[in-house]
Amino acid sequence: MQEQTSFPALYLHIPQLISADKLPAIDELISRSDFVDGKLTATAAAKEVKNNTQIDIRNQQTLPLIQQHIVDAMNRSPIFQAAIFPRHIFPPLVSRYRAGMSYGWHVDSPLMGAYPGMRGDIAMTIFLSEPDTYEGGELVVLSPTGEFSYKLAKGDAIVYPCTQVHCVKEVTKGMRQVAVTWIQSYIRDAGQRQTLFELYNVHKSISKDNPNSPEANQLLQTHSNLIRMWAEA
Fold first, then answer.
1. What are the backbone angles phi and psi of residue 21, rounded to the nearest 5°?
2. Do 212 and 121 sit in the same domain of this protein?
3. pLDDT band at 1 (very low <50, low <70, confident <90, very high)
4. pTM exceeds 0.85
5. Pick the residue with more confidence: 109 or 21?
């Protein structure tokens, strides 16, 4: 799997999170799934701005298999593990947007699932349609420095903080399919996750030629000790 480390951990694009050889199985499962109004899984003000459909969460035939494909891909991704430190992963939802559908500006719920639930630290969108098969439908995340817009290749994923206001622009032609999920991290603080991800990338670069050099070992020790200091286990 190709990895891209030039993006910060806070807004991380993971190319081919789901590899090309796994996508046909997911497509086939989606084709056999029933979709319902997406408002059924929205909370509070989000209900007023959500206009899409989702695979029925009561579906026990195809949805669990799709979810397993996605979670397996997350667990196999070194860059996802290094940037996110997942403690809990909310079962992914599969959403579909046809022409005229959108999801207005909203903030994700801080707590996910039935009591006691899990804390939502990071949101993830996995794109399940090629970008040239639909028009519009960009995921837009409002950051402190402006808007970030994402319309990625099929199988690619974007992760971003749950704290940020975001929306999905109206699809004007074609059909947009995505999976969405939320993650509780062992490292609650986004700035600390960013620091650890930067150290991971520096260690990876230094250890490429000499994995047992004193500098590589020192970086690994520092990275490990910071995890011990910051992790909520």
1. -75, -15
2. no
3. very low
4. yes
5. 21
C-alpha separations of 114 from 90, 108, 111, 117, 118 in Å: 11, 15, 9, 5, 8
CA 24 to chain centre: 20
181: nearest Cα among 69, 33, 98: 69
Task: Tell me the residue range of the domain where 222 lies.
Answer: 190-230
Report the distance separating Cα 36 and Cα 210, nearest Å.
54
Q: Which two tokens stand for residue 189?
A: 């603080």
Alpha-helical segments (H) within the chain: 23-31, 46-49, 63-76, 78-84, 190-207, 214-230
β-strand partners of 126? 157, 179
Q: Which tens digit of pLDDT belongs to each residue from 194-221?
A: 999 999 999 999 999 888 999 999 999 9
* 89 and 166 belong to one structural domain: yes
Residue 81 lies in a domain: yes
| pLDDT score recorded for residue 209 | 87
C-beta separation of 143 from 164 below 8 A: yes
